[in-house]
Amino acid sequence: MRTVRSKLLISAxxxxxxxxSLVMIAAIATTLxxxxxxxxxxxxxxTLANYAAFLSQPFLLKAAYHTMALGxxxxxxxxxLGYPVAWFLVKRDTRFRNAVFLIVLxxxxxxxxxxxxxxxxxLGNEGLVNAILISLGMIDSSLQLMRSFWTVVxxxxxxxxPFMILSISSVLSKIDDDVTEAAMLLGARPLTTxxxxxxxxxxxxxAAGSIIVxxxxxxxxxxxxxxxxxxxxxxxxSIQEQALISVEWPAAAASAVLLTxxxxxxxxxxxxxxxxxxxx
Amino acid sequence: xxRLDIEAPAAGGVAVEIDGxxxxxxxxxxxxxxxxxxxPGEFVSLLGPSGCGKTTTLRMIAGLEVPDSGxxxxxxxxxxxxxPWSRGIGMVFQSYALFPHMTVFENIAFxxxxxxxxxxxxxxAVNDVMExxxxxxxxxxxxxxxSGGQRQRVxxxxxxxxKPRVLLLDEPLGALDRKLREQxxxxxxxxxxxxxxxxxxxTHDQEEALTLSDRIVVMxxxxxxxxxxxxxxxxxxxNQFVADFVGMSNLMRARTxxxxxxxxxxxxxxGRSYIAQNDVSVAHPCDVDVFVRPESIKLVRRPDxxxxxxxxxxxxxxxxxxxxxxxxxxxxxKPVLVCLNQKQLDASAVGIGDHLxxxxxxxxxxxxxxxxxxxxxxxx
Lengths: 280, 380
Fold this sequence. Notes:
heterodimer, A: MetI-like fold, 12 helices, B: alpha+beta, CATH 2.40.50.140, six-stranded mixed sheet, 20 strands, 25% helix, disordered N terminus
């Protein structure tokens, strides 16, 4: 009786997970399948033409390059800005700790649309920064702050930095003070202790945060389109255009598959290099 | 230049002088102006319950905490403002604090690398110390692949390989099971003797302190209660706290009836009285605790023996392996704890409900002024 009931319970608990997994696998499989079709719906003969077309279009290759560059730069900036904040949060016992924690988490409480619009207000041609610079007499006409790669970087870092900080601080908080104290008693000065002990020991957090930030960056659509204003074309935008504007589903699917492969390749290289750093 | 500082007095260990050192955390005094001299090569234990200030004292010697008052002098130099990385101190933490991303070899070599030793010297020194702690087979293991005892050895080797001027041990055996702990105690003592390094051990385990130390410093509430050799601490505890904390003891409340020099007539609440010899003068009239170890009490068959100090009924008998204890109700606040010797056990001479006399040698007992008594002030 009891085993039957517990089996039922286990199946009931697993059902949603299985359902979601099946839907996701089906979606990925469908995308993969469509990417090899001549036309969808319509001509269902298999072909590699969609991939060949992708590789022969400079526009798409440039978008791929932009996407990966954006992913790497945003991840790097998040690590550089996030690590000290995470360290402060965990290792310094100050009364500002809660305040800093709140400031770190605040961006997550605001919708990404609102945050992006906020950057338009600050960086736009009639925006805050230009207004201040003009009123101070430092410039005569508005600077072009929008429409650039770096504007998109700023917007994405703002959105994604909390993920990096939380990942790193969760690992940092597990490092016992004993370990760093032991290093110092063995003759390591604070900077050496950080470089030889704390940093390698916290690399797992950096890796986890980097994967989240990188994955979210290369899939970002809203921030590049709003802050880049057509000047920073990433693959997410191209895929949207192929799928919904020119309605070329097989081409869009091929782009999506290539984006996924590139992302996986980058993460594999990244993780391998981190593993090597932590081991020696 | 710092390198030479550390290496010069390496062999043999140096003296440590703690003079009026105090430390407070957020208004709470963790250590209250303690003073302590440790001779070169000596093995000293700081013994006390948690929160007594022993770990804070150790951390101040290490330089991990800065004292609020007083001076710490290591090998003839005041080190109050010397950072931990230039003190040349080896420390073994309770958690071992091994570097999880480094192999056993790299862990042990870390201190020498920091000193800029040539690779060949490091290799020789690390191999030597690994042999000393029986780790020669495992240089390439990671800490996560080691047992508790092996980790403890790595931590010890890592602290010893830099030829520390002082070795600090913060409850280094606390995480090991009993059998391994006893084995490591013996090894630790041997290794310490061999290296001849001045050693300070922090522990709340009185057995560990008694086994390992040349001298024991008993601490309570941030103060030193008693400093003495293990046998001093055990047989002549300074007060009720030490008597109670170290080993099993009887503290029997009584009152002075007559004081003539060092002869004190003591009367128990049950009406029995006897004349005690006492080294320290005791105020009169005054409540005192009569201190006797359970193994110093003799049980005598004849309950009416006039020489006996107390008599009572055996309430129960507790078997504890090597020794057996009888709880004897003698009309006092608490039953008297008596350690039965083997002969008494073999003959089954003592059973529950037996009425027996209790006696002890004057030399084995101490009179301690009762802590709460008003007259305690006048004793000194």
